[in-house]
Amino acid sequence: MSITTDLQRLLAAPETTATVVDRPAGAVLADLPLLQDVVGVTAAGPVITNDLGPHHRPARRGDPLRPGGADIALRAEPDFLTTVLVTEPTAQIPPTVRFFDGDGNAAHITYLVDGSDRLAFETLRMSRPSDVDLRDLIGDERTIDVTARGAADDSGLPEDQLALFDAILQDCGRRRPQTLEGREGCHRVPVRAAAAALAHAALLAMPVTTCTAAPGCLQIRHDRFDGSREHAGSMVLAAGTARTMINLNLVGQCWVTRAEGVWGPTGAIELYDRRGRCCFVATQTGPVHPSSHDGWQDLVDDLADTRR
Q1: H or E segment at 6?
Q2: Cβ neighbour number for residue 104 with a 10 Å cutoff
Q3: Helices 290-304 & 191-203 angle (0-180, nearest 10)
Q4: Are 190 and 306 within 8 A, CB to CB?
């Protein structure tokens, strides 16, 4: 059998000791704050975000966006997370809690660190079924067709920023590119121009909300950019304890969009992978200073002028 997914690669590794968590993914997500300090990693194709700290209780669609803070903030659709595993430590990797989507790819991984609550982890690890064969977890029958669920509204753009994030979470952002073409305030722009705009925002230490969008899981960070670096087609953005790595060579589309925010229409930079799924959003949310909002809008407007 060919090995093509993250789940298959994990189970094929000879040093891996993995246990199926016999609980719904939503229940496991809700218990992540009990682990205390961890490293939370969300993988979304060409974009990966990692952050250090405790998990905040994950939000669901319709919940308010939480303000900035030191906690790891997830916004989840647990129905898309079909498999949850805990793994024992190896020589190179600490204990982990791993959430996989219906295609068998890792959406979110929580790595334990010195400040983690090991008792809480042991409780998760002991929640195991007696009748589940790990080999059954990699079959095609577990794949979920996300387009069969309620799809994003095609009548127009989301009216506000909350709806923007929820539209991406609702169907993994698959249908959103189809709604952007020809919409007022939306422009497709070159990927390199978007990278330059993000680097400029980092240079100015702008307050920005970033979102890494994996199927079933958004990892959202509200903070000031601390810096950026680009090398050989890969970009790293730093904001507090969070680091976001973007492989620009694997980004298929980039759009400038608008959604209603605290100070009115607020620009967003959206990246899409080569399959047309949204993988990253940068915008401003919450009560930022008016001058910061104006600066971000000027940046996004300048980026829109580079439209393709």
Answers
A1: helix 6-12
A2: 22
A3: 160
A4: yes
Query: Which of 271, 270, 278, 268 is CA-nearest to residue 300?
Result: 268
The closest alpha carbon to 301, from 158, 165, 185, belongs to 185
Say whether pLDDT at 207 is over 60.
yes
- Give this prediction's pTM: 0.88
**CATH class name, domain 6-142:** alpha beta
Q: Which residues contact 285 (CB under 8 A, 6 or more apart)?
A: 65, 161, 209, 222, 261, 262, 266
DSSP annotation string for 7-63:
HHHHHHSTT--EEE--S-HHHHHHHGGGGEEEEEEEEETTEEEEEEEEBPPPB-TTS
Q: Residue ranges of the domains in the chain?
A: 6-142, 155-304
pLDDT digits over 13-36, tens only?
Answer: 888 888 888 889 999 999 999 999
- C-alpha 150/C-alpha 245 separation (Å) is 31
155-304: CATH topology: Heme iron utilization protein-like fold (3.40.1570)
Domain 155-304 in the same topology as domain 6-142 = yes
> E strand or H helix at 171, and its extent?
helix 161-171
At 85, the amino acid letter reads L
